[in-house]
Each structure stands twice: as structure tokens, then as C-alpha cells.
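Fold it.
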Amino acid sequence: MIIEGTSLSGSYVVMPEKIKDERGFFARNFCQKEFDKIDLNTDWVQSNISFNSKEGTVRGMHYQKDPYSEVKLVRCTMGAIYDVIIDLRCNSATYKQSFGIKLSSDNRKALYIPKGFAHGFQTLANNTEVLYQMSTYYAPEAARGIRWNDPLFNISWPLPISSITEKDELYESY
């Protein structure tokens, strides 16, 4: 596997290295030894699936406040998403900056998101499924969000918004 840093401090794109033969390919999508080499969290306590029937659906921008902030490893297992993170760590050199990447069942990339980041995505295809590995259990009382179109972050969503929850629509700007 290949693990490359993004433009935001502490976040990484994880890509499988395919070993191909006449049957197809084999690849690791997670290896604790590789994560340990660069001191990344591997203590996953929860795994979640998000299924989205409509292209253009936006979910986000979500995070949990301390002491329930979470590390996430996000992968698109069916369809495609434009995945976005925002660095909310006040002491970070990349504070208030965002990063976006296409994750899909075709490219098989994953995004490693450290504590202190808001996360959201837009589906790029109908019937899209996203898999999350989480370092912390969900705590509803710690759940927070930032408006998906906050002008401070100027996120350029690739498609018109087709579906978004009222809760996500009503989050305030940062």
C-alpha cells in the first residue's frame, strides 16, 4: 500500500498497490505495520456504512467535539464521492484549510482523517456506499457540524445538491 500526505497536516490518502494476474488483482487496503511507521492511529472501535441512493447528495460537514473527537478512515466501496475535510485544529499550520478528493470503488483510495477535522462528502453516482472506520464511538451529545457551503472554506462541490438533510442545511457557518 502507498500512504501519501495531503495538503492538510496529519491527513493521508491510502492507496492499494495491486498485484495483478489473470484472475484480477490482490491488494492490502489496511496494514497496521504501515500505519505504525508514520504513527497513525489503528485503534478502530466502530465501523459504519453510509448508503446514498441519489447522485449529488451531500452529507456534512460533521465532527465530534473533544473528548469524543475521532480519527476516521473513509473508503467508497460502491459508486463515487467527492470527499472533503476541513482542519479545525486551532494550533495547526493548516487551520481552516480544506482538502477534497475523489474516492471511488474504481480507484479504491481511502482518506485518513485525524482528530480535529470536519468531514463531509457529495455522491458522484447513484447508489453510492461509503465505509468508515472510527477510532471513537459515536457520541450524539458531542456531534457538531459546519454549514456545507460556508463561504470561509469555499468548497467547490462538483455537482448541484440533489439531497441534504434539514440538520445539515441548518448548521451555522464557522
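The radius of gyration is 16 Å.
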